Amino acid sequence: METVEVRNGEVKAAMPEIDGIPGHEGLRRAIEVALVGGHPMVVIGLDTSSASSLVRGVLDAVRDYGLPFHALATTPCPCGNYGSTKQECNCPSKAIVKHMAKVTKRRNEFDIFIESVGPRVKDMGVKPEPFAAVMARVVEARKRPEPKVDTDKSEMFKMYCREYGCDAVVVAKVKAVARSIARLEGCDEAAEHHITEAIQYSFWVCGVFRGFASAETVEVKG
């Protein structure tokens, strides 16, 4: 993957037109949440490199709004086919584990972790929601006060902690992301479904990190 260098808000490479990239509904939602709270995110692109193109396009799209955006886009293995249902991965296990460490060692730097598969056949030729509409929601959400988050009331969060353990860092990240999701809905307090979605973006729930990670990375900051 090509590295995109960003300094002092200036993009040093041509960016793709984000509205022209089909599919990736889950990734688009995660990006919207990330922009509300300024959450750094890791994106694992499965079966396609267009996930990284989408990430680069977002950086270009948000610069006029003066919003911070930090994303690390990567494939699940050196060849990009680990976990693919379309092509076989021939990467040695040791090589994949080695590159997994490059991301896992930095996991505390990021709030959101997501896998993105796509685009699917049904996505081709279908225009996604204009990113301008997404930014309108983000800007409005950022004007709202931060909602309260009480994970002690969440049964899903209790189950998550029993399964993976919850130190102070994990709790803080889930609360922060849940707060951003609730702000998007204009809620004064994060509900169970906000906390559940936040948990789905956590490092431990992102399936690829249970075994392996990638070699090639694209990191962008703005």
Question: How do the strands and helices of this protein lay out in sequence?
Answer:
Blueprint: E1 6-7, E2 10-11, H1 25-37, E3 41-46, H2 50-62, E4 70-74, H3 93-104, E5 112-117, H4 131-143, H5 155-164, H6 168-184, H7 192-200, E6 217-221
Task: Write out key terms for the chains shown.
222 residues, alpha/beta, two-stranded antiparallel ribbon, 6 strands, 39% helix, globular
Structural notes for this entry:
This protein is α/β, with parallel strands linked by helices. It has one domain (6-144, 200-221). Helices cover 39% and strands 12% of the residues. It contains 7 helices and 6 strands; from the N terminus they run ββαβαβαβααααβ. It has helices at 25-37, 50-62, 93-104, 131-143, 155-164, 168-184, 192-200, and strands at residues 6-7, 10-11, 41-46, 70-74, 112-117, 217-221. It has a 4-stranded mixed sheet with strand order 5-3-4-6, covered by helices on one side. The protein has a two-stranded antiparallel sheet with strand order 1-2. A hairpin with a 2-residue loop joins strand 1 (6-7) and strand 2. Helix 1 (25-37) packs parallel to helix 4 and helix 1 packs across helix 6 (168-184). It is globular, with a radius of gyration of 17 Å. The chain starts with 5 loop residues before the first strand and ends with a strand. Residues 1-13 and 212-216 have low confidence and may be disordered.
